[in-house]
Every structure is written in structure tokens, then in C-alpha cells.
Task: inverse folding
């Protein structure tokens, strides 16, 4: 829906250089922007595109404004400002209140009148669904789950049991929350399953990517704090605690009973072993895993970037001869 | 449901020191236990909590009994004993026999009268479902699948085709069993799909974690033996054999036609390449992968725990200069 | 269905040595083949099985024909020829045209009369489904998706929004295409979600494995080109481009905005960081990840195969002392 630059400027308290009556109706990259597009420049990587852009307006830092050939929004955080304005220019479709005729809802469940329950949703005993929350098609909500207001379970989401989700959360398809953790006691006759009796508690403004799994606690709960972002195919084991505003990129796995601090970031395919504590403000590099408590904020890494396979094979061979190399140096020292 | 310590003691043949008439109705950690809680002490990590616990009873080893301020169950395997007692104190809800009105069941399928078929389940041609087996909401059971007795498919499980599951298995949401394996023949015109014509055979007492996938065999079957435990987001490729009582932790991947022995354990994000054989009693460390046959039981590893990223970068640089270091040592030796 | 060797030979223009009237009705390995089985020998690994096989016919290279005790098809690509013949000998079951009574289809959707829409499928607004395309039970097709002809969504597939799939594609259960990418702008108050406004474009003859996820673009589309093969539990982030005939094995993850060339292959648990370009004909070894642009075709690696954990621990300790070893060599050189 077309909105004027002046409206956007006043809504977000953002300085506008240019025509407040100009309209935007979509968003685009600097290169692909048309005369109704809102665009942004957040780093220097695309600076050369700026003078050529045909956007209606560009969100950028003050120091880049001189090179901007079109209307400019000035912001110290152009990417965040873009995120907020884009949500207005290209709003999510509104899902109407009501329960689809095919949805199956336990009589003990309480669903807010403003909630949207889509086709083939199954809602079990004692579930509560808050105001304006939307549950997408094919989702299964098991017993004793609670969903706050303004949440969106996109489709085919499974909340198994005892999952409490606060407000403004987005849960993408294929996510499974509250399945049994991997609790097994070894005996001479084989594994004995350890009952998984806890739940999962998820804070406000959490987003959970497609096909991610979060297990219920064994005793006590698994906890995902406010503002956490989990990407796709992430695994959160039983009794893990993820601190507020922490972001875990795709395919990261956190083993059981580990506690992660606030504002941490794991790059893709990262991991952490179980039963450790990672402090606030820790960054973990791609494909790296944390094996013990981390008490100092900072960046941690343990992965090798790929190189030519033949030269890598030589490197591995040299690595394997390190012991004999050390011996040779010892001999030389004598 | 409250149960007396005496009942638990006699049911499991477990020695009780204390009041046989005392009741437990929940389970808890030593620290959080209340006067009706059953708790346990399995290692030394929580020994300092023992004297302060308010539990009704604690399951522990004989040597720890002296420090126990409350009733004590003596067991050489306190964690396994806890697992068994917890299943009695906090039993799974019973799912009533019957087929939900919304379930869609092929006329050639045979469903035992005691089976529980939940809402929106789809059961295809020639499927058999055994006594007391429960199939949770949204699950799809493809043609020619067989489920034994006392199995539980929690919800949104997909058995694609030709999947045979024995008795007492638990399959968590999002699991896909029997999808086509990754069989592709390269030609100058691109990949040609190789038909995947086998099935999947799963033994007794197997548990499979959320969003795990097990592919059907290309020719012949993929086999998961009795007592195997697969965590979440595990991948089992076509024609893999997993031996009895082996446990694969989260995000482990086993490539095609590999055979894993009995009682093996893979830690998280582990892996094995295809077409190899791993003997019984092999343990694989976190994020490590097996590249060739393993014939000796034992522990195998190949991962670096993360360290400070700057010091790691220096290590990687030193690693890359290993060749020149070896040359320098050679020169010194001359 | 039984088919004569002569029929197969003429259908595929394949030279037959032996009886054209002999029939095959199944496929099997050389070892397990019976008198109606079609088998193949593609490498030298199973050459010793050839003289003992009881197959009706074996597809093999000319140079192996002398050792073949039964009818022989001669092909320079025996595995690809097997793939094509097996699809005739053991055809996929035909899914009849029509829409199951339980399917829920938006009035603005257009479904071809020859399409097969299974039980509990949900099809949203403005969706188009092409001729002979089959959508399996429990699948959810979100708004503005388009499916070409002869596609097969096996079951429980989720296309979220704006997903365009061309012809002859196979999508396995649990796949999620078009979910929001992991777009978050950091602010002092926490993460702000960046609206994900693009779509996903998938070419012809693409196969996508179980529980794989492909996110929609942030601005612009995520693109999977013709003939691409994605295995299970693969993650394709927003705005990735995967070139034609590229194959990504299980658990591979490609981070946002990365472009992969044609005919690339990633082994299992591989990866690539975001915002890089990988040229055509690149092979990436198991568990390895690409951290920067690749401009030369070839094989790239960066993983260590697992070894005995004690010897590995010693290697890691030696690796950690590399700095002091370098210092010692420096001292010796002085």
C-alpha cells in the first residue's frame, strides 16, 4: 500500500531529506529499485550502487547522503530502520479471526475470539490461545500448551506438550517444540528411557526457524528467553537455557543442560556440548563448537576453511607427523 | 498418582532404607524436591546437594546412603532405577482406543481395535497397525507399512512406504521414515534418479527423535536394530544398518550403505561416510566423522574445541606454515 | 510388471547379449538376484559377484561382459542405464487424478484436472497446480505458489508463500520451502525482524530430500536451478542461488546470498558461508566448509577423519604447542 515518505519519517522519527509527499509501495535493492521503491544502504559494500539508484528513497547514514541522487532518510542504523519501514510498506497479510470448520479443538481448550485457527489444526486438552494469535494449517498443539497474544505459528508446527509461548513470537513450519529429550540410562540389558517430564518456556518476541527442534526438560523446563532468534534446523536439547537476544544460525546444536548467556551469536553449524555455561556476549564462528564453560565475552573459533583438497591432504599428513617433528627438534637442541 | 515407597521397592526389587508407607507423587532434582518428590543421585556432581534435600526419597548408591537425610533407595544403577520408578510415579497419559472421526483410513488397512488413531491421521493401503499402538495427530502412514504393538507415533510423523516397525517404539514429531534415498547416476545430461525400491526395518524398543530422517533402501532395506536410540535431526541414509542398542546423538549423519555395530555411541553432529563398517562398541566424539572401517572398539575423535578466535587464527596460520617449518628443520639437520 | 529384455534394449537403444524374450520383473544386487531380476555392475567393487549371479540380466561395461554368466546389457554408463531401466521394471504407483474429499482448496486456486490432491491437503489463495502433479497427504500450499506439471510432493510438505516450482520435481516429506529467511537487524533494544519479501524459484527436474528447508529471499528470490539434487536435512538460506545439476548431500548448509555454480557437489555436512560465489564444477569434501569465493573448479577440503581419541588428543596438544615449536626452530637457526 502506497505510503508517503513524510508519513514514514514522522512515524519513526527519522530525518527526511527530500519530498515528503513522494510515495513508496515496495522495497528493493539499490540496483533493482524503481520509482516507488524504498531502498537502503547499510554498509560500504553497495556504495557504488548508490549514485545510480532509481529508488524513491534510500535509508542511509548521514555521511553517505551527499552521494544519494534521490530522497534520503538519515539513520544511524539504516538496516534496522529499513526493517521497521519495510514492515509498514509491505505489511504481512492480515489473518482474519475465527476457527476454520476443519479445525479440531478440545472442549477444554480456550481460544481467544480474535485468534485465527487455520484448516486442519488440532488443539488438545487444556490449551490456551491468546488474542490475535494465528495458528497455521496442519499445526498440532498438544496438551497443556499456552500461546500468548500476537503469535504466528505459520503451518505444520507441532507443540507436543507443556509448551508455554509468550507474546509476539513467530514459529516457522516443521518446528517441533516439547518433544522428549534424549534421556537414556544405560543398563546391561540396553537403554532404559528416562521419562521427560518438564516443559518448554519461550519468552516474548522469539522467532524460530523451519524444522528446528526444542525438547522439553527432563525435570524442570527448557527455556528460551525474550528476543531470541533461532534459524532453521537448529537443535535445542532438554534443559538448555538460551539467554535474551541470543541468535543461533542454521544447523547449530546445543546439547542438554547447557546455559547460553544474553546477546550471544552462533554462526552456522555451530555447537555446544552439554552441561556447560556460556557467558553473555559470546560469538562462535561457523562450524565451531564450545566444549567447556566460557566466562569471557568475545569471539571463539575452531574450524578450518576449506582449501584445495590435495594441499589439504598434505597439511593433514604434516599434522600427523608433528610428533616426529617435535622429536627431531628436540634432537637438534641436544 | 501417589505411590508408596514400599510399593516401589517391591515392584523393582530395590532395597529401601526408611519408611515404606511414605508416598511420592512427583519427581524432582535434589535441590528442588519437595516432601512428595522422588529424587536421585547418580554421580558425584550433585553430592553436596544431598544433605540439604527435602525429597521424600532419594535413589542412590550404597556408599552415598550415609549422607542422605531422607528415605533412601539403594541401587548400583541409580539413574536407570530412577528412569524405571519415574515412569511409574509420573506415567504417560493413556490414549484411549479408537479411531478419531477425522482420520482417513484405506479400506485395505488393518487397525487393531486397541489402537489409538488421532485426528487427521491418514493411513494408506495395506497398512497394519498393532495392538495398543497410538498414532498421533497429522501423521501420514504410506502404503505397505506395518506397525507392531505398543508403539507411539507422537504427531505429524510420516512413514512413506514399506516401513516395518516392531514393538514398543517411540517416534517423535516431524520424523520421516522411508523417503527415497539420495540415489543419482551422473550422465552428460545431468543426474538420473535411481529408483529407491527397498524399505526400512525397525526393531523393538527403538526411539527416534524429532525431525530425524531414515531413508528407504535403494535395493534391499535400511535396518535399525532393537534398542537403538536416535536423537533429533539425525540422518540415516539408504541401506545403512544400525546395530542393536547403538545411540546417535543430535544432528549425526550416517551416509549410505554404512554398517554400524552394536552399542556404539555418536556424540552430537557426528558422522560417518558411506560404504564402511564400524564394529561394536565404538564411541565417536562430538563433531567428529569416521572416514573408513573401524575394527577396534574404542573412542574416536577428530574435532578441535573452540578457543579465542584470535589465538585460533594464529594457530591456523602456524598450521599452514607447517611445510616450511619442516623444511627449516630439515635444513638444520643437514 | 514383467518386461522382456528385448523391449528394454530397444526402448533405451542398449545392446543386449542374450535372449531378448527373457523377462525381468524386479531388480536386485548381483548377490541377491533371482531368475527374474535385473542387476548391474557399475564399478570393480562387486566384480567377484558377477560370475556367481543368478540374475536374468546384468547391465555392465563391455569389458566385463566376458565374465557375465547370464544375459548382458552393454552400456558405458551401467549405473545410469540401470536407473532408467529400473524405473520401467519397478514403476512408481500411479496416483489417480482427483481431489480427495478432505482436501481444502481456496476458491482462487487453480488445480489441473489431472492433478492428484491427497487427503488433508490445504491449498491457499491464488495457487496453481499443473497437469499430473501429485500433492501428498497433509501438505500445505501457501498463497501465491505455483507448481508445474508432473511434480510429486510426497506428503507433509509445506510451501509457505511465493514458491514457484517448474516441472518434474520430487519433494519429499517434511520439506519447508519459502519460510522467512534469518533476517535480523541488531539494535540496542535487541533484534528487529527484517521482512522477508522475496520468493523461491525452483527449476525443472529438481529433487529435494526429507526435512530440507529452502528460505524465501529477503528482497528478490532464492533460486534452485534445473536438475539440482538436495539430500535430506539440507538448509538453503535466503537469496542463495544453486546452479544447474549441483548436488548437495545430507545436512549441508548454504548461508545467505551465496551463489553456487553448476555441477558442484557437496558431501555430507558440508557448508558455505554467506555472500560468496562458488564457480562451476567444485567438489567439497565431507564436513568441510567454504569460507570465501572459489574461482577454480576442483576439490576442496578441510576436515580431519576421526582417529583413536587418545592419539587425537596428543595431536591437538602438539598443534597447540606449534607456536613454541616455531620459536625453538627459530632459536636453533640463530
Result:
Amino acid at each position: 500500500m502506497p505510503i508517503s515518505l513524510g508519513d514514514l519519517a514522522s512515524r519513526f522519527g527519522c530525518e527526511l531529506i527530500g519530498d515528503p509527499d513522494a510515495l513508496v509501495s515496495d522495497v528493493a535493492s539499490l540496483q533493482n529499485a524503481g520509482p516507488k521503491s524504498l531502498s537502503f544502504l547499510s554498509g560500504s559494500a553497495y556504495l557504488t550502487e548508490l549514485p545510480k539508484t532509481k529508488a524513491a528513497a534510500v535509508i542511509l547514514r548521514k555521511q553517505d547522503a551527499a552521494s544519494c541522487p534521490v530522497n534520503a532518510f538519515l539513520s544511524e542504523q539504516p538496516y534496522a530502520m529499513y526493517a521497521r519501514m519495510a514492515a509498514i510498506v509491505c505489511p504481512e497479510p492480515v489473518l482474519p479471526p475465527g476457527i476454520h470448520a476443519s479445525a479440531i479443538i478440545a472442549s477444554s481448550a480456550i481460544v481467544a475470539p480474535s485468534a485465527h485457527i487455520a484448516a486442519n489444526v488440532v488443539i488438545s486438552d487444556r490449551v490456551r490461545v491468546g488474542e490475535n494469535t494465528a495458528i497455521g494449517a496442519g499445526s498440532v498443539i498438544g496438551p497443556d500448551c499456552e500461546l500468548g497474544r500476537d503469535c504466528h505459528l505459520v503451518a505444520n508446527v507441532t507443540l507436543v506438550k507443556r509448551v508455554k509461548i509468550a507474546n509476539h513470537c513467530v514459529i516457522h513450519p516443521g518446528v517441533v517444540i516439547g518433544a522428549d529429550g534424549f534421556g537414556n540410562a544405560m543398563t546391561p540389558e540396553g537403554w532404559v528411557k528416562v521419562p521427560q517430564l518438564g516443559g518448554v518456556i519461550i519468552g516474548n518476541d522469539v522467532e524460530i526457524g523451519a524444522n528446528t527442534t526444542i525438547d522439553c526438560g527432563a525435570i524442570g523446563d527448557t527455556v528460551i528467553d525474550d528476543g531470541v532468534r533461532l534459524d532453521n534446523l537448529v537443535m535445542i536439547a532438554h534443559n538448555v537455557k538460551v539467554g535474551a537476544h541470543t541468535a543461533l544460525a542454521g544447523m547449530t546444536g546445543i546439547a542438554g543442560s547447557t546455559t547460553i548467556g544474553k546477546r550471544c551469536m552462533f554462526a552456522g553449524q555451530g555447537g555446544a556440548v552439554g552441561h556447560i555455561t556460556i557467558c553473555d556476549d559470546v560469538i562462535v564462528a561457523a562450524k565451531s563448537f564450545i566444549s567447556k564453560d566460557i566466562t569471557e565475552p568475545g569471539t571463539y573459533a575452531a574450524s578450518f576453511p576449506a582449501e584445495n583438497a590435495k594441499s589439504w591432504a598434505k597439511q593433514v599428513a604434516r599434522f600427523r607427523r608433528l610428533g616426529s617433528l617435535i622429536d627431531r627438534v628436540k634432537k637438534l637442541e641436544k
Observations:
- Chain C has a mean pLDDT of 97.
- DSSP finds four helices and 40 strands in chain C.
